[in-house]
Design goal:
Layout (H helix, E strand, L loop, with lengths): L14 H15 L6 E3 L7 H12 L4 E3 L5 H42 L7 E10 L2 E11 L2 E2 L5 E4 L8 H19 L6 E5 L2 H14 L7 E5 L4 E3 L7 E2 L5 H35 L6 H11 L2 H5 L3 H8 L1 H11 L7
Parallel strand pairs: 1-2, 3-7, 7-8
Antiparallel strand pairs: 3-4, 4-5, 4-6, 8-9, 9-10
Amino acid sequence: GKQHCYLSNSKGKSDEELLRSTFERWYLEGDDVPAEISVSEQLEEMDVLQQWLSEKRGSKVEITVPQKGDKASMLKLVQTNAEYLLKELEIQRLKRERAMHSGVAALQESLHLKQAPRRIDCFDNSHFQGSETVSSLVVFLDGKPRKSEYRKYKNKTVVGIDDFASMREVLTRRYSRMLQENTDRPDLIIVDGGKGQLSSAVEVLSALGVYPGIPVVGLAKRLEEVFVPGESDSILLPKTSPALKLIQHLRDEAHRFAITFHRDLRRKRTLRTDLTRVPGVGEKTATKLLQHFGSVAAIVNASTEELEAVAGKKVSAKIQEYFSGSDAGA
């Protein structure tokens, strides 16, 4: 079979860093761990990765760097496929950029806006089985992502799955701060959802005095319907419309950003759980160690003095004993 994913923020990182990042993400999210994994180059702390995957699989996992034979040929094929996909991605990016400029003007016309929506805020929510509910905000300027102004939010007041409450909270936090700090206002606000989500947004924005000064619309996933306040019928933009392509790009980017944030939270929680398996290490100590060192791998490779400075002698000794393999294989 063949599957692929694209890495963001890869500029300036070595091939090894990118490979390790992909490797950890792939097997953290998936449950299917094979007995043998081939990689194109040696990974730092290979033994730690093998131990982690062996525990996850329930039997020995070997990571190899084949230099010749069928497996080496397969890795060359993987690289060729990856280069092809990357070129295709670049072609699609250039096409999308050309369409985005016309998308702003088309969006103004389609939504009957008083001015061109040069600056657009778009929101999305993400949750996993009702836990770790998060929201994301992406900002586009002149049809292009303004990534320095993206924001992610861990919902503080929402219990369980409640997309309406999550949207109300994130909008309140976002635009209360905008008013307090007098930062740039968007020309259009987009919320991911239909009439119900749009009504919740209008309620919050009206209470803050932001609406109707700033127009707001909702985008429903099912038929790509655009809902506007006060209108019972949705707007169905033509599938080839630059306005629809721009809105879809905004929505997809907000969703991607929320999912990435959610994945990071789950990853940190999983790594923290790995640490709490060490006898004598509780949730508080695990969090403290991760905040200081940044990752379990960094903790494993820390010197005795570095560990003791954070966790004390007794706990440090137990951590080193556990990750040396004496307890890990028990």
